[in-house]
Write a structure and sequence with these properties.
The chain is mainly alpha-helical. It is about 70% helix and about 0% strand. Helix 4 packs across helix 5.
Length: about 120
């Protein structure tokens, strides 16, 4: 189990720069990521599972990926509707990143026209 954690951390540190380069995420929580490399060897071996392990990021992603699309569905064949919703939201996010890279304006047409 500990070797799997170390392997996952090694892969994360190897691949995370691509997310920054593509603008998928603006930053990573470096202190949290840094402390993770100490968990397998020190904390877990000596004391067991880490106390108060924060799952708020996972919960937040669950809300975005499952709960909000469920509320948007009409509850008939909800899974299919949820998947389409998530695909569309991913495409919108990707477009926003591309538009920002191309220097296109932020906001809506109305906010741009009003000068706000």
């Amino acid at each position: 189990m500990i070797s799997q954690i170390e392997d996952a951390l090694c892969r994360f540190h190897h691949y995370h720069p691509i997310f920054l380069q593509l603008g998928v995420v603006p930053t990573f929580s470096v202190p949290r990521q840094h402390s993770m490399k100490h968990y397998p060897n020190l904390s877990i071996l000596l004391f067991g599972a880490p106390n108060s392990l924060c799952s708020s990021i996972t919960e937040n992603e669950h809300i975005k990926a499952v709960k909000q699309p469920w509320r948007r569905s009409n509850r008939y064949n909800a899974l299919g509707q949820m998947l389409v919703t998530n695909q569309r939201l991913d495409k919108i996010t990707t477009l926003h990143v591309d538009f920002t890279k191309c220097g296109m304006p932020n906001g809506s047409c109305l906010s741009d026209a009003s000068g706000k």
